[in-house]
Amino acid sequence: MRILVVEDDRDLNRQLVDALTDAGYVVDKAFDGEEGHFLGDTEPYDAVVLDIGLPQMDGLTVLEKWRRDNRIMPVLLLTARDRWSDKVAGIDAGADDYVAKPFHIEEVLARLRALIRRAAGLASSEISCGPLRLDTKTSKATVNGTALKLTSHEFRLLSYLMHHMDQVVSRTELVEHLYDQDFDRDSNTIEVFVGRLRKKMGMDLIETIRGMGYRIKSIDSKA
Ligand code: CA
After folding, report:
1. Tens digits of per-residue pLDDT, 79-124?
2. Domain limits for position 11
3. pTM of the model
4. Are residues 68 and 172 in the same domain?
5. Ligand 1 centroid vs 58 CA: distance in angstroms?
6. CATH assignment at residue 172
7. How far is CA 28 from CA 13, 56, 126, 137, 153, in A?
8. Per the structure, how many domains does the chain have?
């Protein structure tokens, strides 16, 4: 899962990026509205954290422009504490949720998880597929209750496929959601990660759809 953080306060920006990275996301950052708008317009993000008070272009304008151009990624707004009017304007401009400053980083993380979950049509913070379970709260995956030791790339790959269960996900799409904008992207490495994941899981839950990509098919856990 790939997140964009748009916040001009450098300390806060770094705090958010660090916390999100620790939580297993790949993160791009912007420090003004124009740069943020450009990234959100050109890169595919699974969610965006967007400050309202930004230089160059304010957060509400950024959001309105995205929505007008049919950019539908979930957006979590950062608002000033007492500005109820900002919250209303934000929701009306197309925000999915907001957090008022000052906030606890855990609240931002929880709200983002919920947004990503909802965008994927999932109700629970735990996603399962037969013996495989992914806990989005702890960023841990287990098979038959045994924790998998995954690298951050492997975890992101598994998480992305599980958030898009039953869909064929192309290698290009995976690359776009697994790496940040500065990474030297190589879609061949995806194949390597899939191979390692299969080995670590000890089962073949990830299907290769030739010429198309990969898919995890849902399995009725009661079956
Ligand atoms: Ca600001």
Report:
1. 987 788 988 999 999 999 999 999 999 999 999 999 999 999 988 8
2. 2-119
3. 0.89
4. no
5. 9
6. 1.10.10.10
7. 10, 18, 25, 21, 15
8. 2
